[in-house]
Amino acid sequence: MTTMTSYPHGVPSWIDLATPDPAASKEFYGELFGWDYEEEPTDQEGVHYVMARKGGHSAAGMMQLSDEMAASGMPPVWSSYVTVDDVEATAAKVAPAGGTVLQPPMDVMDAGRMAVVTDPAGAVICLWQAKEHIGSEVVNEHGALTWNELITPDPAAVAPFYAELFGWTAQTAPMPTGDYTVFHVEGGNENGIAGAMAPPMPGMPAFWGVYFNVDDVAATTARAKELGAQALMEPTPMPGVGTLATLTDPHGAVFALMSPES
């Protein structure tokens, strides 16, 4: 088990799901990934935040996709969070760098402070300044976060935005499916902390996707489909990377699976 106790500035550290039916989503992902759950109070009466855990360690979060969120056009979606040292200072860089602040910095109880922003192409990313909650305490094992990936029409065009906010540097190399960009940051994994690529189909909106490590992509994909998921990309070997698959959960939220090459 790979456990984390902190994250440096600029490293993706947390993911959570906005879902119209948290109870059904808990059942789906619990069966698929072996999660158990704790419900934590929020500052909204009657609203709880669901903490998914593996082996007693936080793995991901879930929350109710409210009517207000849905009315604004927000679909069921997995969101990615990047740890920052100072959420106010980072949010102040967003507009000058060409992005938009959707949710200004706010306290999340005693867990931390967050903001929600978009990059110049419209991809939503969350900023996280940790207090009591560092983010994912377990990573890179079956049912845990292993990679965050930006799907965007022109990765080179948005790379300066992420360089300004997080200090990311970008390295691009050819892959069987096209050029792939890997982002690096000081203090992060030497193999990279996130990736970016052009969308597989023209016209797709820019978004941040999440990958879960699984022991067997084919078996997990098959089980996900039995539980009501649909495969957007069936299990596919990727030389030098591993086996990948992309799915939508029963409510339409996109997520991906990865079994790294051994």
Task: Write a structural description.
This protein has 262 residues and is of the alpha+beta class. The protein has a single domain (1-154, 196-262), classed as Roll (2,3-Dihydroxybiphenyl 1,2-Dioxygenase, domain 1). The protein is 17% helix and 45% strand. It is built from five helices and 18 strands. The chain has helices at residues 22-33, 67-71, 87-92, 155-166, 217-226, and strands at residues 2-3, 12-19, 36-41, 48-54, 57-64, 77-83, 100-108, 112-118, 124-130, 138-139, 144-151, 169-175, 178-184, 194-197, 207-213, 230-238, 242-248, 254-260. An eight-stranded mixed β-sheet has the order 3-4-5-2-6-9-8-7. Strands 12-13-14-11-15-18-17-16 form an eight-stranded mixed β-sheet. Strands 1-10 form a two-stranded antiparallel ribbon. Strand 3 and strand 4 form a beta hairpin. The radius of gyration is 17 Å and the shape is globular. It starts with a strand and ends with a strand. The model has no long low-confidence stretch (mean pLDDT 94).
Features:
single chain, about 260 residues, alpha+beta, 2,3-Dihydroxybiphenyl 1,2-Dioxygenase, domain 1, eight-stranded mixed sheet
Give the terminus-to-terminus CA distance.
16 Å
Global geometry: globular
Low-confidence stretches: none
Count of beta strands: 18
Rg for CA atoms = 17 Å
Main β-sheet, spatial strand arrangement: 3-4-5-2-6-9-8-7
Helical segment count = 5
**Whole-number count of domains:** 1
- CATH homologous superfamily caption: 2,3-Dihydroxybiphenyl 1,2-Dioxygenase, domain 1
Query: Helix/strand-derived class?
Result: alpha+beta
Strand content: over 45%
- CATH topology category name: 2,3-Dihydroxybiphenyl 1,2-Dioxygenase, domain 1
Under the CATH scheme, the architecture is Roll
Biggest β-sheet, characterized?
8 strands, mixed
What proportion of the residues is helical, as a percent range? 10-25%
Q: Strand-and-helix sequence, N→C?
A: EEHEEEHEHEEEEEHEEEEHEEE
CATH class (first level) name: Alpha Beta
Mean pLDDT, to the nearest integer, reads 94
